[in-house]
């Protein structure tokens, strides 16, 4: 496995792989890999001949007061995990290499990026789309794999690929959960034991929403209320948002006649967790 | 020569050319080609094995009330000219293919794009950078050629390539002028005979600025005043801006100890013309 630190070297390597006829995949990560990331690397393996895992904690997607400085980092562990999953390349750019002091060009989205996560994390998606565009242009992949837990990110990246004509297939991986249902997240490491127990309320809310939907409930407000009531069971939590939204517009829906998402963001102390589930009559690939 | 109308077909064709080991160049145009464009196609030929000329009047870079509807168009003539210059491909996407009704992702620049042209054409550079990013991702070139007349555009595109890591070399072509010095522009076609004569004032101002500079003048205000005085010689014109700015920051300068640009935008009736020249002690490639 190769570790590449510069954009130029990464581009050269990808072009050489492509010239050999190899199909290239990219799994963008901020490191501190967990089983969720590893499942994406496995999807990448199945879909390509050469797997690039990018490893970069992107300052531009953290707001002031967010956890950029404390975000967990352990490169040696991540290296071992990538090697075990037979990734071919770790792309690990330096911050100086990624953002020059007078960096001034950004990718923005005007319709969906101020909703939900965007409403609570100013500038977050500008930071995400910009770094993903940069990683796409550095790694030049045929396909890129993103997890479904960050569903708004996934939808916005698909939108960016469509609107800016990136010649890249976006493949989503299902959310990976602990045995008790908590969605995997590098931020779970921040939780106290008590918070860890209370955090189960996210998945419990989603399960109850799906139960109602599967029994035929199509009034979004009924499901919304159940979710809100369930979330109150965690005494130490603060709600950022919990909603039932259209899968394309991300706007709240009334009647569940089209595929919808239940989306949640809940804070436990300083730790912010998100989760989601799809409500649809057939299988929907996010 | 091949005419390609869809992004997917363009990407497929470029990838096939690259797989054959060919170096690909892109000359982005809005059509109605003049000798300025043709000089860029010749530069493209010298720098690549396959020349793509894109041909698309981009609505997103015209403001409300600007000349999108009346912008001159003549595809058959442009086709002949491209064939004569031995271009390999004309990429001519449809507007529907380029902008879906819910298009919402844009490339923006935060530091230089509100100055000069940007101050007079709200949203212009967002439109330019977005379409150029789309054309880059459609044509997947190794290099792209832009004219120096639109100098702020050229600087912003170089910035975009740098900040978003596009693996593309940007090559500039010198401004091509009529025998009497008027910079070629598709918009010159709008000028009345009288305006056409008066429009020479742009180049005359730049010549006087260079004359002063070449004689050793390093006080930017002296040059600025001369340019303003010269521009007043055209009775039927209205000034948008005329300034002496730093070649990197595009901000007004006082002392000409670093390379600078004299930049002009002047309106003759509804026709808006721009021009510029470099003031530097050695040759500067824009």
Question: How widely separated are the two ends of chain A?
Answer: 30 Å
The strands making up the biggest β-sheet of chain A line up spatially as 1-4-3-2-6-7
> How many helical stretches of chain A?
10
Shape of chain A: globular
**What's the level 1 CATH class of the largest domain in chain A?**
Alpha Beta
Oligomeric form of this entry?
A: homodimer
Largest interface: A-B, 33 and 33 residues
Strand percentage of chain A = 15-25%
Looking at CATH, the homologous superfamily of the largest domain in chain A is HUPs
Q: What is the averaged pLDDT score of chain A?
A: 97
In CATH, the architecture of the largest domain in chain A is 3-Layer(aba) Sandwich
- Biggest pleated sheet of chain A: 6 strands, parallel
How would you spell out the order of helices and strands of chain A?
A: EHEHEHEHEHHEHEHHHEEE
Number of domains in the coordinates of chain A? 2
Q: Tell me the structural class of chain A.
A: alpha/beta
């Amino acid at each position: 496995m190769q570790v590449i630190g510069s954009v130029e070297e990464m581009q050269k390597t990808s072009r050489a792989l492509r010239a050999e006829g190899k199909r290239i995949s990219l799994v963008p990560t901020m490191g501190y890999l967990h089983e969720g990331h590893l499942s994406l690397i496995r999807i990448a393996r199945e879909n390509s001949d050469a797997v690039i895992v990018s490893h970069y904690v992107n300052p531009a997607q953290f707001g002031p007061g967010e956890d950029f400085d404390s975000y967990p980092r352990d490169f040696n562990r991540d290296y071992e995990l990538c090697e075990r999953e037979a990734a071919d390349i770790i792309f690990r750019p330096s911050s100086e290499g990624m953002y020059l002091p007078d960096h001034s060009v950004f990718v923005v989205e005007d319709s969906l990026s101020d909703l939900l996560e965007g409403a609570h994390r100013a500038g977050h998606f500008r930071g995400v789309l910009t770094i993903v565009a940069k990683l796409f242009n550095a790694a030049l992949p045929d396909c890129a794999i993103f997890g479904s837990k960050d569903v708004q990110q996934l939808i916005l990246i698909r939108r960016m690929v469509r609107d800016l004509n990136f010649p890249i297939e976006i493949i989503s991986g299902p959310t990976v959960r602990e045995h008790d249902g908590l969605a995997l997240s590098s931020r779970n490491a921040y939780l106290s034991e008590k918070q860890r127990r209370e955090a189960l309320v996210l998945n419990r809310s989603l399960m109850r929403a799906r139960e109602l939907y599967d029994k035929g409930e199509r009034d979004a407000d009924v499901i919304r209320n159940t979710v809100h009531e369930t979330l109150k069971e965690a005494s130490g939590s603060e709600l950022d948002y919990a909603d039932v939204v259209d899968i394309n517009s991300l706007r709240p829906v009334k009647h569940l006649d089209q595929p919808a998402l239940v989306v949640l963001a809940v804070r436990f102390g300083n730790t912010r967790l998100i989760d989601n589930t799809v409500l649809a009559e057939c299988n929907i690939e996010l």
